[in-house]
Amino acid sequence: MAGDAVRSLTLAQAVACHEQMTLPLCPATLHPLYVEADAARNTALQPAYLCFEDGGECWMHAVHVSRVPGTSLRDASSPYGYGGPLSTSDDPRFLAAAWRAYSRWMLDERIVVEYVRFHPVLGNDRHYGGRVADNRQVVSVDLTVDDIASNYASRLRYTVKKAEKAGLVYEESDFGDHAAEFASYHRAAMREMQADAFYLFDDDYFERLGKSGLATLGVCRQQGGDAWLAAGLFLDGAGVREYHLAATNEGGRATGASSFTLHRAALAAKAQGRRHLYLGGGTDASVDNPLLFFKSSYSPQRLWYRTGSAVFDAAAYDELTRRFPAEWAAHPERPIFYRKV
Questions:
Q1: What does the alpha-carbon distance between residue 130 and residue 115 come to, in Å, rounded to a whole number?
Q2: What is the pLDDT of residue 3?
Q3: CA 68 to chain centre
């Protein structure tokens, strides 16, 4: 019943509900089709789409639900990247009612705990009823300025000019047409960097992203050449382009291809009428993180990336700390401490 309980939606219903909200600013990582596609990372992840409606307003939250190993209990988490609720209203009474109904649903479904990563561009932590914590500062590019490059650090302007003089070119296409090619290219780059196996996404993951219709491929080549020097997977939502995954190789590093790719992707997003290019932050929260240093050359704008968590069943959560004592001892700061989220 509206105003009393949340509704569990099918994917088709969730897409319709999402589109009916007509939010002027909505990153693609909060779209139900992205939540569905991202679940391909792990067969243990089951998407859940919840909606609360009252008085013509709508609150929607999509998560991945997973079984806690060896138990009948479950947990919930954001998809890879960002999540959190969307709401057509900031009214505290409406948000409190939505949270009460959501919490009841989680208890009924034996979901003990959840962990959420809010989107910094939206600041949608304000629509969440659980615990919210600052995590780190991140970078976003304001695409509404007349000259985007005027806000670049001098080192980046030099790199972009060097790439242009070297004859680098950039083009965009629908990601679905090149999903398998990007999958192979990205995995090779991750292995070269000795990245955690968590980031070695398989072909099915990229194919599902391609079918979502939310993904754009940006590729940098030498003029007249076919080989990729850098490639970026961008997610395009209402008003926002997100820098999702990228890769380069030795030839690309020598010519500044990654920097050139992001620069041209920003120009393309601006031409399409988007207001933000969201780049994210570093690999950790340190202010001197190398990845943050690279991204900060594109924009002086800093946003707060925040996380959220809620324990819906305190007794069951205590049971999990006893069942997984080593994991709890190692990571008491993680709401979902017994697996990587």
A1: 10
A2: 61
A3: 23
Tell whether the torsion through CA atoms of 114, 305, 54 and 61 is positive or negative: negative
Which residue in this structure is represented by tokens 């409406």?
Answer: 94
Per-residue HEC secondary structure of 271-317 comes to HCCCCEEEEECCCCCCCCCHHHHHHHCCCCCEEEEEEEEEECCHHHH
The answer to whether the beta carbons of residues 205 and 41 sit under 8 Å apart is yes
Section 290-299 average pLDDT: 94
Q: Of 262, 229, 257, whose CA–CA distance to 245 is shortest?
A: 262
Name every residue whose Cβ is closer than 8 Å to that of residue 94 and which is 6 or more positions away in sequence. Answer: 54, 55, 57, 59, 87
Q: Which pLDDT score, from 0 to 100, does residue 151 have?
A: 94
DSSP 319-335: HHHHHSHHHHHH-TT-S
C-alpha gyration radius of the chain? 21
C-alpha triplet 92, 17, 206: angle, nearest 5° = 110
Residue 317: count other Cβ atoms within 10 Å of its Cβ.
15
**Domains observed in the chain:** 7-135+307-330 (3.40.630.30), 144-274 (3.40.630.30)
* 93's tokens: 């009474």
Tell me whether strands 240-248 and 276-280 are parallel, antiparallel or unpaired: parallel
Give the residue-averaged pLDDT of 17-26. Answer: 94
**Which of 71, 31, 42 lies closest to 242, judged by CA?**
31
Lowest-confidence region among 65-69, 96-100, 197-201, 228-232: 197-201
Alpha-carbon span 176 to 182, nearest angstrom: 10
- Residue 319: partners with Cβ closer than 8 Å, 6 or more residues away: 73
Q: What is the pLDDT of residue 2?
A: 53
Q: How far apart are CA 75 and CA 64, in angstroms?
A: 8
